[in-house]
Amino acid sequence: MNHLRASTKAAKKFVKNGQLQQEAVSLLKPKHCRVMSTSADLESHSIADSGPQVTVPAHSQVVICGGGIIGSSVAFHLAERGWSNVTVLEQGSLTCGTTWHSAGLIGRLKPTITDMVMLDYSRRLYERLTNEGHGTGWKQCGSVNVARTKDRMVDFKRKHALAKTLGIEVHLIGPSEIKKMCPNLYTDDLVGGVWVPEDGVVTAQDVAMTLAKIAKEKGVKMLEKVSVEKVVTKQGMVTDVVTSAGTIKCDFFVNCAGQWARAVGKKTVPKAVKAPLHSCEHFYLVTKPMEGIDTMMPVIRDPDGLTYFREWSGGILAGGFEPKAKPCFHKGIPEKFEFQLLPDDWDHFQILLDNMLHRMPSMQTAEVRQMVNGPESFTPDSRMLLGKSPKMGQLEDQISNYFIAAGMNSGGIVGAGAVGKHIAEWIIDGEPSVNLWQYDVRRFVRLHNNKKFLRDRVPEALANHYALKYPKEEYKTGRKLRCSPLHTRLEVAGAVFGETMAYERAMYFNNPDDDTFGKESRPMWSWSKPCWFESVQEEYWACKERVCLMDMSSFAKFEVRSRGDEATAYLQELCSNNIASEVGTIVHTGMQNNQGGFENDCTVARLDQNHYFIICPATQQTRAIAWLEKHLPRNGSVQVTDATSMFSGINIIGPHAQQLLADVSDFPTNKSDFRPMTVNLIDVGHASSVRAMRLTHTGEDGFILYIPSEYALHVYDTLMIAGKDYGVRNAGYYALRHLRMENFFAFWGLDLSDKITPLECGRGFRTKIDDPEHFIGKEALLKQRKEGVGQRFAQLILDDFDVHQDLWPWGGEPIYRNDKFVGFTTTCGYGFTLEKMVCLGFVGERDANGKLVTQKNINDWVMDRGAKYEVDIAGVRFPAKPGIYSPKMTIQTLDPVFVPAPNRG
Ligand SMILES: Cc1cc2nc3c(=O)[nH]c(=O)nc-3n(C[C@H](O)[C@H](O)[C@H](O)COP(=O)(O)OP(=O)(O)OC[C@H]3O[C@@H](n4cnc5c(N)ncnc54)[C@H](O)[C@@H]3O)c2cc1C
């Protein structure tokens, strides 16, 4: 007997039997499914053109590399939009990569609203195709996600709150209801769960084949046994795709090569395209039919137990996400890895098996049909890779017609429908209809594509799938890669670091005199008041009342130069604000796209007549250079350089900043000599050529010094020593965030995106919309100003919120106005001056279909006295007071409070 209860050794023996391995593949086929057991079988049933007689077209509007579910979905959606001159190239047979052995779970409860919108679209598509008579294996059995802990239940409640805004039916249930729905589950240790009746399962291969078949019927060429060998680019455009069956000229290329996508990227000439992903082994087992298993058994997810279960041919298919996964194929994927699996590994599987048997005790006597160990690709942050490929970390042409849709992190089946839809939009319309920044390949820098880094990081990315994702939780592997010159100093001072674009940034500082220093004795992550609350509070008040130093070295920095006035003309076209002010001035400006949305939000300092220094959020390093480069005059008259690593940044914040800088520099720092929003080249201590700007990103008075990196440590030490008299201290990014939020400052990537315009976030005054100069997006803004906007950035101050007891808002919470859903929060945090919880977010009226209604007087609508706002935090609604301007009491006073300035007579 090969019962699961039997020892691992016995199980190993059972599955290691060579014959079974053979037999097992065919056993994977459920009765209703068209899955073929071997590639030979598949070929005979394939809907694609295959074999040596295949000829490739001389030209195809779009060439898609990869005939898995993602490539098929992109082809399907292009064809649905009328683009049929499309060719899908598959090196083996359709679905032979990862798609064929997927477990086919279609669940929609995910951490962000964008995730949910996308997955809901996929689910509806698969249901539609089924209703139209196509075989997809779609079964609406619902899903039950169970919680072992209260914190997990909070996670479910947060997702429940999000799902409600989309009309997804979700019910919070208790252990007894779970037992009723799933009698074969052990429920005594459960806190509760969530029931999603319209979730379900598909047969992945059937969905992929259906999408491919419909695409083909609409004219798409689906070619098997044709591999992409080279992607030729000229002047930032793919021109030719060299294949094993000839060369195809194309207008667009889409890399949908799954775990091969990184290798396919390397086939690009003259310069490789980066697709940061790495394969990992991924497991499930299938049992023979078991007694009492209903075909409509809901999918069960026990994320605290790392596992999931679905019904499969009368038995159970159970898999999971182990805490320490196994990366594979580090040296390359074997040739002809088609319809293949990896060897089973029962030792590795043990942690999942133990949890399975615990949750579903009836499996103990089940007979194993097969263990499936299939490779799947994972990315450094466990989010998929979508979008146009920039050449990361270098100022080179981005390839404007090269798209990537890969790195699905074990969500490629449920993701495929939406991925295909949005990639098709991106190609046809020039951009996707929703903000996809969280998946955009431009969120990475070059080092993320480092193979060793990927190998070390992806096991954590796999584990992350079911891990409880607390707000602000950080990855542990592949850290300390990009460090500022101050890193060690800050570490010794108690810094707790977070990572952005692989850059280590001090988020807050533990007090080195505290007993708990360095011990992590308090839980690091939480849904409610975080362990860093008191530390950030101290840093906040030091910024308000004394002086703080913040290491801002991670900000992305660019130099723009020209011989004549081309740099000014170039930036005037890119920037919505007027940057052509006198030398030495600084301007905050957006860079808008054609729809008026923020491609970037930055600070532009005019260092010389034809020389500008641009500072952007750290997350913009790849995206900004791609945008800057895309619009460069082709005659080479303007040079753009990425200066991020050349300059370190130290922000001196607070009422004593002026005196502190005066003490260490010969440059006069009073406000008449060193005006706000101006830049001067100054000496600090013994260092020279420091670009000092009078501005902070928090609303306080102060300076930001951009220091040639080799002087940064000296400048920091000089400021720290001189600052002792002023009570100087370090402060981290959380303090910055709390200060700027309270002052109602929006930040790109958190509040602003390419779908938000300056008029929607109350920044019309920061544009040159009324000046004669043209800039990208001007027409869209003029139109919007005439017609009105659909949403408005607002600050919501929560009433009746107990900062010590209540669950905190972390961004992404639904906002209600007069009981009607009107938007989501973007950033939230405690306002130490206001002594209230503060949420920033966008609000707007929606029609019956959930579409924003354009309003001419949206400010009046937001501030209507009769309007009652509430923010939903994990199902509890907190009343909120709206505002559209910075609250007066948060504006800082210049009078130092605690530490008087020393008299140095
Ligand atoms: C064990 C397991 C369980 C899973 N369960 C689920 C689940 O329940 N739900 C879910 O949503 N997801 C699940 N997944 C993930 C899902 O299966 C994948 O994300 C999805 O199949 C990826 O599809 P793809 O099209 O990107 O890749 P693939 O299916 O691998 O397709 C890529 C194709 O590109 C082809 N190719 C590569 N190089 C070239 C070249 N040079 N020229 C031409 N063709 C090339 C390959 O041959 C391959 O067929 C699971 C994955 C595994 C391993």
Automatic annotation (TrEMBL):
Residues 805-881 form the Aminomethyltransferase C-terminal domain. GO terms for cellular component: mitochondrion. Residues 429-484 form the FAD dependent oxidoreductase central domain. Residues 62-426 form the FAD dependent oxidoreductase domain. Residues 486-770 form the GCVT N-terminal domain. PANTHER family: AMINOMETHYLTRANSFERASE, PYRUVATE DEHYDROGENASE PHOSPHATASE REGULATORY SUBUNIT, MITOCHONDRIAL-LIKE. This is Pyruvate dehydrogenase phosphatase regulatory subunit, mitochondrial. It comes from Elysia chlorotica (Eastern emerald elysia). The lineage of its organism: Eukaryota, Metazoa, Spiralia, Lophotrochozoa, Mollusca.
